[in-house]
Structures are given as structure tokens and as C-alpha cells.
Amino acid sequence: MSDADIDQDDSYWGRVRNLGFALPRCAACGRFHFYPRPACPFCGSADIAPARASGRGTIYSYSVVHRAPSPAFAADVPYTVAIVATDEGPHLMTRLVGIAPDHVRIGLAVQVRPGAPGRPPLFEPTTMEAP
Amino acid sequence: MSRRAPLAAVIAGVGESPIGLVPQFDALGLQRQAALSALADAGLAPRDIDGLLTTPLRVENWAMPCGVVAEGLGLRPRYLATLDVAGASGVAMAHHAAMAVATGQCETVLCVAGQNLLSFHSRGSAVRKMADAGWAHPEFEAPHGPLVPTLYALAAQRHMHEYGTTFEQMAEVAVAMRAHAARNPLAHKREPISVADVMQSRMITSPLRLLDCALVSDGAAAFIVTTPERARDLRQPAVALLGHGYGHSHTYIGDYRNVTTTGAVQSGGEAFAMAGLSPADIDVAELYDCFTITVIIELEDLGFCAKGEGGRYVEHGAIGPGGRLPVTTHGGLLSAGHPGLAGGMLHLLEGVRQVRGQAGARQIPDAEVALVHGNGGIIGLHATLIIAKA
User: Fold this and answer.
1) Which residues of B touch A42 (CB under 8 A)?
2) Number of neighbours of residue B278 by Cβ within 10 angstroms
3) Residues B240 and B94: beta-carbon distance below 8 Å
4) Which residue among B127, B140, B153 sits closest to A92, beta carbon to beta carbon?
5) Are B157 and A70 a contacting pair at CB < 8 A?
């Protein structure tokens, strides 16, 4: 896939690809939020732009999926769906990779691992190096 | 915010189709069975109905469900609408019907919904249809592969972490529902189960196992709301709506920052305030039970116990037959049946029968006040109703 193709990807993650792990940030109150919405959930301003976030957070909750919702996921089971509390505040759902499902715990420090172009990012246990 | 007054409307009739595997009827056929049952209960004929509320389906594609149902049942309503607050729709229909009646838009509303959710789909395709229905955010959640149960499992896992809730405590909810269902001849699943049976059932999406999850059923439910005056010469004692409330905390579980506390705090608080009652006044609580964890969180948020105490509250059969607070006494979505949005209506039917004293083998002695609670979406949209004989 060429860069031009990716730029035309109109998914959120496609649009912010050049910023890395970017979350919507309100210019009026300075707070990050996610998922994207037309106005800031904290102050109501519509002056919102994606801004680079640290890509670090902790596991807020998780579930190990043993029964795939559709054939597209059948080869992946068991896999860990998690909610990450980002260091910036917003929570988001992700797939946790790089750790056996049995070892996942709430509070585990995690960092972003970019997803495929236009796909949501995954998270993995934090390593010493910056993501 | 000003305190609202109860609505001048009553529930005059309730009924349902057969529930479970009912392959001889399509969605409209099931709804007709339920509507005729509710009409017979009230002592009314179809020509007495001048209002109609229904919900969307998850089987056939009905572009305008209230129109399809009106035509299919031969009704000519002066007021009709399709209501959708997912699992809270049963409670919300009663409230909307009462608003229509109390404001003179019509006199007698038929609320009816249901579908052949089990026999239309294979179980696998029902699961896939639910997974594709948008409960997980289509762009930010669904690509990660959650089942609908996964979305509730995320709340359950967090509840276990924050409050020490255990697998065994969640299993107690499933066991209690099955024990109630054993006393309900219409229930989809009636054979008793134990905590060990739940704990040994297949893990679906941790920490939820197969028996922590609602059934998939065919079935339809109906009830009739009318004016207190009209109800006076009908067949059954009228049941009044003493209080109601709604609460919405979130639509998607992934971006909600406090998944163990829900809109039930507000919906219950408003319903109790309107009724001038407290949880101690409730004789029977018909709580929405799409998963075992749902009941535990609702018990807390509605004020039957402190936050975090729900797991301990349900231990030792406390919400089962003969327990300190009988909960969801028909057996609920976990055992009596879950035909989609009509599932939450069955809780209302049961509450009405309990306060009328007509619940048969599962009648709670001297039940005067019932709380009926519906939950829509991913434990985010709640509707509470408090009812008693008028």
C-alpha cells in the first residue's frame, strides 16, 4: 500500500497515522478525550484536533475471549480484549499482544504497538525503551 | 430538577407467547399470541386498543415495526411508535404508554414485542448478529473481536478487581434464576443447576462462563396500559405505576471510566423519590439479568446493598426462592428466556403478576410493591419502574 492510499484512508487511525498514537485534544480546555466526538465531553468546545499522546497506560480491565464472535476471529482464540487507561486519561478498547492471556492482570503497564494501516492500535506490556 | 409526579395510568393486562424453542411461529405470529394473551387477561378485544408500542427486531428486517405490527394484528391505533432503548425497552414502553394515556392521546395502549430469535438463527448466527449489532463501537472496538458478553466481562473483571467479587458469587445469580424458573411452567430452562455446574460450564469470555450468560429464545410478550377509570370494569386488578426513572451513564464500555457504577443509580433514585419509597419497601425486585454480573451491579446501584457488596449480597441463595430479596422471580433472561428486546418485558409481566398475587408456585407471600428494572446496551442505559396494586 502506498502512502497516497493510506492518506485516503478515512478511518480515524488512518487520518492520524502521521502523528503516531494521537488522541483528540480540546484546544479550549487542553484535555484529551477518546472516542472521537463532535465536541469536547468536558467543556463542549468543538475546537478539537488530534495530538500525539504518550502511548503508555495501564490495563483497566480485560477479558480473554475463548469463543470467536465470527469466523474472522476464529484463528485468534484465545485472545485478550482489554480496556487501557492511557496516561493522558482517556480509556480505549484494544487487543493486548506480547503476553500470554494467563499472565494479564489489571494494573499492568502497557504501551502502544501500532496496528496495521487504518486499523486500531494494539497494546503490549511496557518495555524499558520508549515506544 | 423538579420532582415529577406519577402518571395517571395503570397496567390492565399481561401475557406472553410460549417461550423457548417455538419454531411454529414467526415474529408476528409470536407477537399475536402474546397480544391475544394480554387482551384475554384484561378482558379486552382488539377493537378496544387505540394505542400501540413495539420495538425493533433482530431477525426479519421490518422497516417500520409499529406499522408492521399494527397491520399484522389488525389494529387501527390513534397513537403508535417503535421504541428502542434496547433491554430497557420493556420498562420504557410501560412509561411511554402511561404518558400517552395520562395525557389523553389515547385510552388503551397495547405494548407488544417478540421474535423467533432462536429458531430464525442458528445459535452461532445469533451470536454473530449480536456481535455485529453495534454494541461494540464499530470503528474502535469491534475490530478487536469482542463478543457482546466480552463487553460485560470487562465490567465483571473490574468489579472482581475493585471489590473482590468472585466466580462463585456470580454463579449464585445463575443458580437463583434457575431455581425461580423451576417454578415457572413457561420458562425456557427449568432443570436445577448448582454453583459447581456454573463454574464447570465452558469459559466464553473471562470471567464469564456459558451459564453466566443469557439464553437465546423464541418468544413474545405483551401488556396493556389504560386509564384508571377504564381499568375499573376490566377483568384484573389494576396495577399502578408509583415511580419511574431513567439513567444513562455511557453507550460504549471501552471509553467509560467507571464501569462498575451505572445509570441505575439515577434511574433507581428517581423512581424511589417519585414513589416516596426506599429499597427496604420493595417486596420483589425484577432485575434485568442479561449476565450474572448485571444483577450484582444493579443490586448495588439501586441501593439494595452498598457499592461493592453485591457479590456478598447474593450468597447463600439470598435472591432465590425464599431468600431475603426475591429477584427476577420468573427466572429472567438467564433461565426463563431471552427473545431480544421482549426479554425485559417478561420482567414487567412477572412484577405485575406478583403484586396481583397471581404468580402461582413462585408467588412471594404478601408481595405488594415490585421494582422492575431494565438495562439497555452495555450496562449503560437504565430504566426503573415501581409498581403496586392500584
Assistant:
1) none
2) 10
3) no
4) B140
5) no
Residues B217, B295, B89, B155: what is their CA dihedral angle, to the nearest 10 degrees? -100
CATH, residue A117: 2.40.50.840
Residue B109 in this model has a pLDDT that exceeds 50: yes
Cα–Cα distance measured from residue B167 to residue A57, given in angstroms and rounded to the nearest whole number: 27
Q: Which domains does chain B have, with CATH numbers?
A: 10-120+216-231 (3.40.47.10)
Average pLDDT over residues B299-310: 98
Cell numbers placing B206: 473471562
> For B73-97, what is the mean pLDDT?
97
pLDDT of residue A4 exceeding 60: no
ipTM: 0.94
Contact B105, B51 (CB under 8 A): yes
Grid cell in block for residue B224: 396493556
Q: What is the pLDDT of residue B61?
A: 87
C-alpha cell at B293: 454480573
Residue A123 touches partner B, C-beta closer than 8 Å: no
Kindly report the length of chain B: 390
On whether residue A131 sits in a domain, the answer given is: no
pLDDT of B222 over the 70 cut: yes
Cα B252 to chain centroid distance, Å, stands at 20
- Domain, as residue range, for A90: 3-125
pLDDT classification of A114: cutoffs 50, 70, 90: confident
pLDDT of B121 over the 70 cut: yes
- Structurally, chain A folds into a number of domains equal to 1
